[in-house]
Every structure is written in structure tokens, then in C-alpha cells.
């Protein structure tokens, strides 16, 4: 499908989705969010795709929700249209792993979008922030919730209340991002990680994603039970037999997602 605000490429089992509104630093408007939700759903359906990478430009992953789109809206408008909820729900329904590759600004909705992904690889140029407080509002799609779980209450309060930006080094130290690399190497690093994931059994990687995400939603005892049951269930797959046989035979496994 042809998109106007994103660019989608599938190569070697990895779907690369690039946000593409350069004049607005990839600000998230209704069209972009709708196209992104469609592309994410299509990647989930596409049998060739085994991992997804979401990225922006060198200057901005995304500088937030489109302020110009929102400025004249009333409470009734945003409440009744439930701004961005169907789109973020669609992204949340994707069961294949999604990596965010972030360079430059990831602010407001941009930071929140990166946090919707399974992990974030950052360029050393990345700047994260929840500056909505400067606009007389607050975060609306995860900046007070996912950020708090990722970096803890004190830093999440600091970011949301002061609106300050966090650089890549602090973001890695705080647990917001998994790796920081020089900007020139960002896409190689992210695509390399995606390739590694794409080589595994898709049943394993989707089960791992489901299980890690479950830890946000439940007690430790229930989470451990969920993990154990999913672990047990993987012994019903051919890929478990293949993976363990390949180890014993000192060869690379050939996973078939069965
Ligand atoms: N929305 C719309 N346009 C934007 C945005 C944005 N968020 N960010 C940048 N732009 C536009 C600018 O208006 C400018 O366009 P133009 O040339 O037509 O004036 C162009 O992008 C380039 O931007 P700048 O000239 O400002 O570039 P600088 O390098 O000087 O500054 C910054 C870069 C620091 C990133 C600056 O642009 C900035 O502060 N942007 C706004 C950041 C921000 O406040 N983000 C939060 C937005 S609110 C939000 O995300 C809420 C999410 C929750 C939604 C929940 C729904 C339920």
C-alpha cells in the first residue's frame, strides 16, 4: 500500500518503517498515526516479516504529536474522537518484535511512540523528553505510565514536570534505551539486531514478547506462572526439537515457526 507520511520497506524478513514528515520533524498527525497503524498491522500479517524496525530521520525520531493539529481542539473534540487511541491500540496488538531506532528528538508523543516499541536503540544524538507541560497539557499516550515503569518515579516526575530533555547517555543509564551507538551506526545496529531476532523461531520471539509484556500487567507470582506455562507449551513445537537437536549436533538450527 502507498503511504504519504511513512516509508515502508521489507527486506530479509525485516520490515523497516520510517516516519517521513521532515518539514514537521515527524510530528504525529492523524494521517501519520493512521498510516503507521496500518503498516504495523500489515507487518503482523505479512508472513515474510519476522521483526519490525521503526525509525525517523537523523534530526528527529518524532518531535511529538502535531501541535498545530491539536491547538484549536476542544475537550469535546479530543474526548469524542479519542485522539490516537485506535492507532496506538493497533500498534499494541502487533505480536512480532518491534525495535525503535531513535536519532535526534523523541519528544512528547515521539518519546511515547518509541516506548510502545519493545526496546529502543539510540544514536548518541538522541534526546528524549515529555515537554507537554510547556504547552499547558501533559503526556497522553504513555509518558506518565510507560516512562515511570522504565525509569522510575523520580526521573519520570522530573521529565514530565520540568519538561527537560534527557540525552542518550542518561537514557541508557536510566534504562529507557537498551544501547547507544554513534549516529552513523544507528541503522546498522538496529537492522543487525532485527536480523538476529528474525533468525529465531517466530513462535519463541512472539512468546517472549508476550511474556515480558505480561510482567507489566500482573503480580510476580502470576507472571512467573504465565512464563512457566508458556515455556512448557513451547515443548509442543517442532522448533524446540530442532533448536535442541541443532545444539547437540553442533549446527545452526533451521526454524520453521511450527
Ligand atoms: N508539532 C507540529 N510541528 C512541529 C512540532 C510538533 N510537535 N515540532 C516541530 N514542528 C515543526 C515546527 O513548527 C517547524 O515548522 P515550521 O518550519 O513550519 O515553523 C519545524 O517542525 C522545525 O521545527 P523548529 O524550527 O522548531 O526546529 P528546532 O530545531 O528549532 O527545534 C524542537 C526543534 C526543539 C524539537 C522544537 O521543534 C520543539 O520544541 N518542538 C515541539 C516539541 C513538543 O512540544 N512536543 C510535544 C508535543 S505534544 C505531544 O506530543 C502530546 C502527545 C500526546 C497525544 C495524546 C493524544 C491522546
UniProtKB/TrEMBL annotation:
GO biological process: fatty acid beta-oxidation
GO MF annotations, alphabetized: enoyl-CoA hydratase activity
Record has Transcription as a keyword: no
InterPro entries (UniProt xref): ClpP/crotonase-like_dom_sf, Enoyl-CoA_hyd/isom_CS, Enoyl-CoA_hydra/iso, Enoyl-CoA_hydra_C
Family: Belongs to the enoyl-CoA hydratase/isomerase family.
This enzyme's EC code(s): 4.2.1.17
NCBIfam families noted in UniProt: PRK05862.1
CDD domains according to UniProt: crotonase-like
Main function: Could possibly oxidize fatty acids using specific components.
Keywords: Fatty acid metabolism, Lipid metabolism, Lyase
Protein name (Swiss-Prot/TrEMBL): enoyl-CoA hydratase
Catalytic activity: a (3S)-3-hydroxyacyl-CoA = a (2E)-enoyl-CoA + H2O; a 4-saturated-(3S)-3-hydroxyacyl-CoA = a (3E)-enoyl-CoA + H2O
Amino acid at each position: 500500500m502507498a503511504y504519504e507520511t511513512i516509508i515502508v520497506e521489507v527486506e530479509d524478513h525485516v520490515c523497516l518503517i520510517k516516519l517521513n514528515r521532515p518539514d514537521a520533524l515527524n510530528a504525529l498527525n492523524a494521517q501519520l498515526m493512521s498510516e503507521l497503524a496500518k503498516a504495523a498491522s500489515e507487518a503482523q500479517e505479512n508472513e515474510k516479516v519476522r521483526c519490525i524496525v521503526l525509525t525517523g530521520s537523523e534530526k528527529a525520531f518524532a518531535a511529538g504529536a502535531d501541535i498545530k493539529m491539536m491547538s484549536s481542539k476542544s475537550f469535546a473534540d479530543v474526548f469524542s474522537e479519542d485522539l490516537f487511541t485506535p492507532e496506538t491500540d493497533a500498534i499494541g496488538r502487533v505480536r512480532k518484535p518491534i525495535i525503535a531506532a531513535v536519532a535526534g528528538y523523541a519528544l512528547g508523543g515521539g518519546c511515547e511512540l518509541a516506548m510502545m516499541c519493545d526496546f529502543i536503540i539510540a544514536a548518541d544524538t538522541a534526546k528524549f523528553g515529555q515537554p507537554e507541560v510547556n504547552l499547558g497539557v501533559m503526556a497522553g499516550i504513555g509518558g506518565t505510565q510507560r516512562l515511570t515503569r522504565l525509569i522510575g518515579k523520580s526521573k519520570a516526575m522530573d521529565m514530565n514536570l520540568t519538561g527537560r530533555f534527557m540525552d542518550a547517555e542518561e537514557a541508557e543509564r536510566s534504562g529507557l534505551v537498551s544501547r547507544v551507538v554513534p549516529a552513523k551506526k544507528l541503522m546498522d545496529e538496529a537492522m543487525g539486531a532485527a536480523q538476529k531476532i528474525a533468525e529465531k523461531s517466530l513462535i519463541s520471539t512472539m512468546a517472549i514478547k508476550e511474556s515480558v509484556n505480561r510482567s507489566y500487567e500482573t503480580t510476580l507470582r502470576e507472571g512467573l506462572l504465565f512464563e512457566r506455562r508458556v515455556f512448557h507449551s513451547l515443548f509442543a513445537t517442532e522448533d524446540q526439537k530442532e533448536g535442541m537437536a541443532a545444539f547437540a549436533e553442533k549446527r545452526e538450527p533451521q526454524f520453521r515457526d511450527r
